Amino acid sequence: MTTSAAAVDRAPMPGMKVYNLKLGLWVFLLSEVMFFTGLIGSYIILRFAHPEHFAEPGVVLNVPLTAFNTFVLICSSVTMVKAFAAIEQGDQRGLKRWLLATIALGTFFVGVQAFEYNVLASEGFVPVAEEYHAVGRHQPLDGPAIGGPLYGSTFYAMTGFHGTHVTIGVLCLWFVFWRARKGAYSAQSFGGVEIIGLYWHFVDLVWIILFTIVYLI
Amino acid sequence: MESDAQHKQSPYMLIWVVLFVLTMMEVFYAFLELPKVWLAAGLIIMAIWKALLVALYYMHLRFEPKRLWVLAASPLPLVAILLLVVLRENF
Amino acid sequence: MSTTEQGMVQKAEPGVHHDHHELPFIRQYIFSTDHKMIAKQFMFVSLFFLVVGGLLATLMRWQLGYPGQPMPGGGILPDAMMAPTPGGAVMLPEFYNSLVTMHGTIMIFFAIMPLLVGLFGNLLIPLQIGAEDMAFPRLNMASFWLAVPAGILMLASFGVEGGAAGAGWTSYAPLSASGEYTGVYLGQQLWLVSLTILGFSSLAGAVNYITTVVNMRAPGMTWFRIPLATWALFITAILVLLAIPILAGALIMLLFDQTIGTAFFLPEFDGEPLLWQHLFWFFGHPEVYILILPAMGIASEVIANRARKPIFGYHSMVLAIIAIAFLGWIVWGHHMFQSGMNPMLGTSFMISTMAIAVPSAIKTFNWLATLWKGDIHLDSPMLYALAFVSLFIIGGLSGIFMASTPVDVYIHDTYFIVAHIHYVLFGGSLFAIFAGITFWYPKMFGRLMNEPLNKVHFTLTFVLYNLVFWPMHNLGLQGMMRRIYDFTQYEYLQPLQPMNRFITTCVFLLVATQAVYAFNFFWSMFKGEKASANPWNSNGLEWTVPSPPPHGNFAETPVVHRGPYEYSSPESDTDFLPQTAPPRRQPDRPLEPTPTPEGA
Predict the structure, then answer these.
(1) In Å, how far are A51, C266, C339 from C270, measured between CA atoms?
(2) Does the N-terminal or the C-terminal CB of chain C have fewer CB atoms within 10 Å?
(3) Count: domains in chain A
(4) pLDDT band at residue C585, thresholds of 50, 70 and 90?
(5) Rounded distance, CA A158 to CA A203, Å?
(6) Is the peptide bond before C86 cis (omega within 30 degrees of 0)?
(7) What percent of chain B has pLDDT over 70?
(8) Which of A88, A198, A208 sits opposite B50 (nearest CB)?
(9) B78 interaction partners in chain C (CB closer than 8 Å)
């Protein structure tokens, strides 16, 4: 109700043209890019500096198992995107079902990683520099060491932090699932699902890079 | 909006298949008898291709305002600077 | 509230609407989500750490002024720090190393950064852009409450066996990686954990500030109508967002080296100490711009307002801030000229470092041009801001010397560097903080600070500050090195003893002088003259709301019609024209017809 010729438009400036929660999460992901750059970048730098500390693909690390695990994580991205698509259509059951599937796959990924860590440690591939004596896959434990301590240090730092991010993602997914059960989301209001989806895909994206650089090169 | 939702739905499964195929290709490629440089270059290209697919379709960037693309790409020059400069060190 | 794409309605944060009743004490003062309260929380905690940092410096100066001599009253400190002797206690070298380290760490991370980014970022951003609060008020609260345990851990490290971290604020490996070199074990680890937690606090703040400035500007608040303080804080937030994670990665790798036994930076296992330096300074250089850009923004606001003139070259000021932020990513090697890094890198860093002087110079000339022929009011905010400009110029000029690699080879790690650091951080950042606190004090507390007392504080601080830090240029050029417990062990440095003693005396007086500001600060809160909404006749949106502003800031969403620096504008009857004042010419009213010339 105004008396002047044109009503005053009191909407804020358009800005990034995405809602606050989504913009905030994208901004946060930029900081995550820098964090992994520090870790992966250090690996690349140390590998160029001391190539003898590292090994050819498959000699120490289990490429087939990890390739399968990579596929598992990619599948979890698909289930996540299905969960989001479900709530966009207002499908509450679909949302919950696909969220659970994502949680299951994510948990499985972390489980396989933990299993892999155990096997690697038993083969002498450890992060502690003084105790590093990686003999390689299927080799006798008193065999010669392959690579050097920098391999162990960088491997566990990178994959460990990635695994931590996956674990935190799983916990957040549980939170979103719990909220979904309380009916917090709808076709008009699904921000929380969208942003956990963005985080989850990002974690998958980092793994795609990590798997290639650490396991295949 | 309606057509947008349908448009958004369709590539997901296709992308999944492409990601699976690319992963298989990567593993296969990594064990070929090639000079290290060719191996690394090919693998990095495939990895970036996969990452872009996830970013553009699963993270929805393809359908977001272009300004969000600029935001998302902003750390990449810094990544390049850090790596390219420090790799010049004769460690 | 705003509607967005896909019909998603922006949910108002619970507890952040304008019309609710009083919150319980704990929600209003302790666990508050109101940006103005969080700003004050950052302010009080940071000012406390500023005092702690100053006391640590005072202790250092005792040793430098009176090397090896018993400090009166030193006996109250534990034997691990000061060895008791008749007349007091003598400082131990290990404790001196901790003092050096913790003075730098606390001043940079727990005083200057939270004052500039935590206090002014929180206080000014929503108010200056016309928003009711930050984009994520609860995340904002988390940001403050993460900083508190970080601070507690940092202080606690003084009390553990081996004492507080002692490898310098730059914590170079391998000195920092293994306790056998410094004698510090747990203290160094606490330092790393504390800073990592603080990093989370800073990141949370950065996400909040960026989202708020991008998405929550009031109608009419285009990018080039945003006040320079908010511009500076916005760009600073981007630097924080992208630089802090690199530091976090490096801190964690160093922590792993210390605790788990990894080998990132340990040469005995082929780790690379230079990698630490590259990672640290890749963060560290943007960090110093984080410490100066908000100060520049504050100075711009105060100078324009107190000179009653528009900021000269507002657009170039914005572009200069952006240029400084851009270039700040490619100069970090100038901290490493003596490290043994690739000399070719040294040359390229020298060139980029010289280039970055240009946008800072542009800003300086713009401030001077703003002052030129201005209606200058020499009250205390203006005095502090003028000191900022002049002392920053000196600090910047000494920086040019360091930018030149051959010169820096000579002056690196001497007191010349210490002089430079303190001219930009104290002469620059801290004086700007004084200007900002004084200027926005009425908005925070609804009262004015006592002006004569501030002038006394300013005069004493300005004089004593220069007496302390100017001579350090000379000391450095004569070869006195940094971080040294007893420089008199070198015969060629013994003639520098009297100057060091003089500086120490001035430091005691300088620290004592701050009591004047502290008294004024607390006294005025209760007894200061009550302030109106706009005591400085300023144009910004924050001056259109009461002092202090109510919860939710604006009774109705403001509409912006112009930039923030319309001082002495012909469109106004007074010498200022607020951003929200309606335009003189209404769109639906025709302009006066142009008079036709006679005889045409």
Answers:
(1) 11, 7, 17
(2) C
(3) 1
(4) low
(5) 13
(6) no
(7) 89
(8) A208
(9) 242, 329
d(CA C170, CA C284): 9
CB B59 within 8 A of CB B15: no
Q: Which chains touch B (3 or more CB pairs under 8 A)?
A: A, C
* Complex ipTM value: 0.94
Contact C269, A149 (CB under 8 A): yes
Confidence of residue C6 (pLDDT cuts 50, 70, 90): very low
pLDDT tens digits for range C336-368: 999 998 888 999 999 999 999 999 999 999 999
Asked if the Cβ–Cβ distance from C250 to A188 is below 8 Å, we say: no
Q: Are A185 and A193 a contacting pair, CB within 8 Å?
A: yes
DSSP per-residue string spanning B56-71: IIIS-GGGS-HHHHHH
**Residue A127 C-alpha, separation from nearest chain C C-alpha, in angstroms:** 6
Best of B86, B87, B90 to substitute, by most chain C Cβ atoms within 10 angstroms, is B86
Half-sphere exposure of C253 (CA within 13 A, CB side): 38
pLDDT score, position A164: 98
Sequence ranges of the domains in chain C:
25-544
For residues A50 and C225, what is the distance between their CA atoms, to the nearest angstrom? Answer: 53
- Say yes or no: C379 contacts chain B, CB-CB below 8 A: no
Euclidean distance between CA atoms C339 and C284, whole angstroms: 15
**pLDDT over 90 at C182, yes or no:** no
pLDDT, tens digit, 9 for 90 and up, residues C369-396 = 999 999 999 999 999 999 999 999 999 9
Average pLDDT over residues B72-89: 95
Assess contact for C131 and C122: CB atoms under 8 A: no
CA torsion sign for C1, C3, C5, C9 is positive
Look at residue C23 in the predicted model and tell me its pLDDT: 84
CATH of the domain at A209: 1.20.120.80
Range of the domain at A199: 20-46+61-111+150-216
* CATH class assigned to C25-544: mainly alpha
Residue, of A54 and B11, whose pLDDT is higher: A54
Q: How many other CB atoms are found less than 10 A from the CB of residue C361?
A: 15
CA C51 from chain center: how many Å?
15
Contact A148 C136 (CB under 8 A): no
Is the pTM higher than 0.90? yes
The token pair that represents C13 in the structure block: 């944060």
- From residue C285, alpha-carbon distances to C114, C170, C248 in Å are 17, 12, 15
Alpha-carbon gap: C349 to the closest alpha carbon of chain A (Å): 19
When pLDDT is cut at 50, 70 and 90, the band that residue C400 belongs to is: very high
Neighbours of C515 (CB within 10 A): 11
A5 lies in some domain: no
Query: Residues 82 to 101 of A: which have CB under 8 A from any C CB?
Result: none
